[in-house]
């Protein structure tokens, strides 16, 4: 059973959004080619889905600015602009993404007291989203991961998949992803590779 995980391909992380990733919109046609390819038995997506007063937002910390380090639940926290607030356009999946073919959309980041980069669990690694159990129940043995942003939510989702889905083979699709900084992307790819995640491009998958 082969699955594709599309991480946070939302308006908020694309140009015009509240926390745009450089060229984030460029992943959409690549993701669509994968969705439409017939190479996958199952297609799932994650969706940042924050309450308006989420503790990772700089606006929740008087005197703090976005991209400063603050504190959340007693731990250091990167403070972000308000983004992907529930029921807003910013939180919606990109309108050009072929979302009608997605079998499950897993929402995350709903607890205001902890951030959630991974599609599988919160950053404290206590609360699970349920996505891993779903993929196990479906018998997934191969998982390709891509989306936004490589150096945060994509990386943590790929690494958690390895830990939480017994025996799964995970691949990161580089050209279907974009990151925050070049240095962060390079470090994320190195970390994923060091943990046994294969680095591939969509052309490799489509040609197979």
Automatic annotation (TrEMBL):
SUPFAM superfamilies: Isochorismatase-like hydrolases. CDD domains: nicotinamidase. Its EC number is 3.5.1.19. The keyword Cytoplasm does not apply. The keyword Metal-binding applies. One of its GO terms (molecular function) is nicotinamidase activity. Pathway: Cofactor biosynthesis; nicotinate biosynthesis; nicotinate from nicotinamide: step 1/1. Signal peptide: none annotated. Pfam families: Isochorismatase (PF00857). Residues 3-202 form the Isochorismatase-like domain. Keywords: Hydrolase, Metal-binding, Pyridine nucleotide biosynthesis. Belongs to the isochorismatase family. PANTHER family: LD05707P (PTHR11080:SF2), PYRAZINAMIDASE/NICOTINAMIDASE (PTHR11080). This is nicotinamidase. It comes from Rhizobium viscosum (Arthrobacter viscosus). The lineage of its organism: Bacteria, Pseudomonadati, Pseudomonadota, Alphaproteobacteria, Hyphomicrobiales.
């Amino acid at each position: 059973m082969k699955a594709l995980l599309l991480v946070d391909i939302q308006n908020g992380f694309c140009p015009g959004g509240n926390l745009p990733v450089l060229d984030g919109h460029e992943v959409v046609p690549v993701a669509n080619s994968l969705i439409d390819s017939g190479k996958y038995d199952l297609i799932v997506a994650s969706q940042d889905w924050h309450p308006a007063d989420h503790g990772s937002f700089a606006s929740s910390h008087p005197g703090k600015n976005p991209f400063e380090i603050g504190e959340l639940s007693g731990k250091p926290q990167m403070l972000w602009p308000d983004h992907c607030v529930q029921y807003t356009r910013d939180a919606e999946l990109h309108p050009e993404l072929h979302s009608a073919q997605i079998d499950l959309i897993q929402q995350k980041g709903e607890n205001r007291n902890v951030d959630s980069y991974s599609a599988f669990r919160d950053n404290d690694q206590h609360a699970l989203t349920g996505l891993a159990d779903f993929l196990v129940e479906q018998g997934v043995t191969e998982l390709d991961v891509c989306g936004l942003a490589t150096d945060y939510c994509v990386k943590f989702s790929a690494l958690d998949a390895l830990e939480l889905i017994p025996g799964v083979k995970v691949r990161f699709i580089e050209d279907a992803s974009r990151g925050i900084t070049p240095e962060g992307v390079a470090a994320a790819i190195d970390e994923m590779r060091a943990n046994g995640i294969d680095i591939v491009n969509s052309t490799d998958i489509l040609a197979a």
